[in-house]
Amino acid sequence: MSLLQLSILGCLTELVNFPH
Q1: What tens digit of pLDDT does each residue of 1-10 get?
Q2: Phi-psi bin for 18: left (phi > 0), alpha (psi -120 to 50), beta?
Q3: What 3-state class would DSSP assign to 19?
Q4: Measured between alpha carbons, how far is 1 from 14 in angstroms, rounded to an integer?
């Protein structure tokens, strides 16, 4: 995995885990 993929994955997981 590249650093870009990891950063994108981290952003996605944060958005998903954020309580709506």
Answers
A1: 799 999 999 9
A2: beta
A3: coil
A4: 18
**pLDDT surpasses 90 at 13:** yes
Look up residue 20 and give its amino acid: H
End-to-end Cα, the chain, rounded Å: 29
Closest to 2 in 3D by CA, of 10, 18, 12, 16: 10
Q: Where are the alpha helices (DSSP H) in the chain?
A: 3-17
Q: Tell me which residue has tokens 């885990």.
A: 17
DSSP class of 18: S
